[in-house]
Structure formats: C-alpha cells, structure tokens
Design goal:
It is a single chain. The chain is of the alpha/beta class. It has one domain: Pyruvate-ferredoxin oxidoreductase, PFOR, domain III (Pyruvate-ferredoxin Oxidoreductase, domain 3, 3-Layer(aba) Sandwich), CATH 3.40.920.10. 41% of the residues lie in helices and 23% in strands. It is built from eight helices and six strands, in the order E-H-E-E-E-H-E-H-H-E-H-H-H-H. A six-stranded mixed β-sheet has the order 2-3-1-4-5-6, sandwiched between helices. Strand 2 and strand 3 form a beta hairpin. The relative contact order is 0.16.
C-alpha cells in the first residue's frame, strides 16, 4: 500500500499543521510515514508545499513528479502550479480562494478563473473537486479553520484512517478552546466532499 499526498498553498493557511496531522493519523493507523515541507520565503503569503508519503514502508519523503495520488490546493493557483505532479487517476481537491501574487497585481500575468483551474487540472486527471472552503470557514466563525476543513476533504479519500483517529490527532495539536470549532470544520469538509462526489 502506498499513498502520496501533496499539500500546497500559501503561508498562513495552516498547511504544515494539516500535513503534520495527516502523518500522525497514518502512523496511528499502523503505516510508515515520511514528510517534508518547503516554505519558500517562509513568510505569510509565500508558497508552502508539504509532501506526505504513506505506505507499509517509505524510504524517502519526496514525491516524484507524476506520482501524487492526492493534491490538496489550499489556494487555486498553487494547485495549478503543482498539477503536473499528479499521477494518472489522482485526485485534486482545490479551495477556490484567490491570492494573486505580485506579478498578477502588476498586470504582468493572468490569474486563472475557477473554470480555467479545473480545465487545466483535468488535462491530466478526471477527478477535480473545487471547494469553497474559505467562505465556509468564515461562516463557521474563524477563517483559520480552513486547514481543518480541507483536512476533512482529504480524509474522505484516506479510508484506512478512522474518523475518531483523525479527530484525536486534531485535538492533540490544538488548544482545548479550539477543539470544537476545528472538529466542526473537519466534519464540514467531509460532508462537502461527499456531496460533491455524489453529484
């Protein structure tokens, strides 16, 4: 068994925390896990990428281009940038949030629409799930829960980890006062992905 996940977005979206929880949950389910993070400029708004590899035995944390089973883009342009890493039959879960880089703000580059993002990703795979995660996290009352909402979406496609294990790992990484709203975000992410899958 092997599952390679690439989590990407920009600084401040909680990507490293989400990937830490994925790795911990997989280990709790009895699998070997390796992960590595690339923080770019390591500043809020800079590109962030986490590689998470899960299997019976994993030797390297880095995923080769064309081998990603699940790509989770917390920001849609970052999802497009890493789309070539998806394996045939892979899955892309993309938050529809737009955070244009300076080159777009200066009019030097075009920022893709939701439809363009889906079309680009579907050139290599069939299953692309566009999630309005940022708006839903805001509606919950805390935009910082976006990472747990996206984690709920990811968990839908990681059936060997039980829901209780996911939630235990979430709670271990967060202060007690944040447990309730983040578990709500996780549950919402699971429901959202299941709804999209059933359409």
């Amino acid at each position: 068994m092997k599952l390679d996940l690439l989590i990407t977005g920009v600084g401040g979206q909680g990507i490293v925390l989400a990937s830490d929880i994925i790795g911990e949950a997989a280990m709790a389910a009895g699998y070997d896990t390796k992960k590595t993070d690339t923080l770019g400029m390591a500043q809020r708004g800079g590109s962030v990428v986490s590689h998470v590899r899960i299997g019976d035995k994993v030797w390297s944390p880095l995923i080769k281009e064309g081998d990603v089973d699940i790509l989770a883009g917390f920001e849609k342009l970052e999802a497009v940038r890493w789309g070539s890493y998806l394996a045939p039959g892979g899955i892309a879960i993309v938050n529809s949030q737009s955070i244009p880089p300076p080159s777009v703000s200066r009019g030097l580059e075009h920022y893709p629409t939701d439809e363009e993002v889906v079309d680009i990703l579907k050139q290599g795979i069939e299953r692309v799930f566009l999630i309005n995660g940022t708006a839903q996290a805001k509606a919950l009352g805390d935009i910082r829960t976006l990472n747990m909402l996206m984690l709920g979406c990811i968990a839908t496609f990681v059936p060997f980890v039980g829901v209780d294990t996911w939630k235990e790992c979430i709670c271990r990484h967060l202060p007690a006062k944040a447990h309730e709203i983040n578990i709500k975000a996780f549950d919402l992410g699971q429901r959202e992905t299941q709804n999209v899958c059933s359409r």
